Amino acid sequence: MAINSKTNRFWEIFTILVIIGILCLLLIPDVQQAVNSGPRERFRNQMKAVGLALHQYQDAYGCLPPAALKGEEGTPMHSWRALLLPLLEPYFKTKSRPYGYQFDEPSDSETNQKIASQNPHFYRFIITRDDNTKRTSKLVAIIDKSTYWNPAIDCHRLVSGNKAEKRIILMEVPGLKSLWNEPTDFTLDELQTLIEENAFATYGSHVLFDNGEVTWLSPDDITVQKMHKLLNIESKSQLAD
């Protein structure tokens, strides 16, 4: 009788442990999603702050920042990301991660590289996958004569218009591990290549519109035709006129 009681007790405990184990396995995706929802929301809020900073920069200087400040030989020296830092300092600055980008030094100087390394989440979205590997993406400008970042124009300005005619000014591109201080972005042709190579097929992309709106585009939304339309400000300029 005692043996049967112990046996039954063993199986009761074993069954409970199995149930707990199954529940833990079922909860892992939810926990992972909760862990990543924090970085995702911070990135979206950061993009909204960047949108506001772009408007403030234009109010102060009459134009949007250039994609990159260039040196005497035409070499990119400092990214638009660095140019917005003074306006974003109240949002970005934390006690544990010092701020102090030096414009009198190259973007990859020891000082600026250290600052970028100490603040890796500036303009970047970093999440941990289920297998504990990191997925990194970065906010970039799309360079083309039809976008807000026309290389042939010195002064780019936000084009006013109704909400239906909003255009993308910046977008998140996956797979970029370089830090934000690097003065590099993507051309429209390079973006088209990424789309054709299904670079956005898994995660889609967060985009910042010229009205300050931040939106997530699903992989199905990111086609060459749709992105050309959403990035093209020439048609919006004509409608605004």
TrEMBL record:
Sequence ranges assigned to domain DUF1559 in this UniProt record:
45-89
Q: Which PANTHER family match?
A: GENERAL SECRETION PATHWAY PROTEIN G (PTHR30093), TYPE II SECRETION SYSTEM PROTEIN H (PTHR30093:SF2)
Q: What is this protein called?
A: DUF1559 domain-containing protein
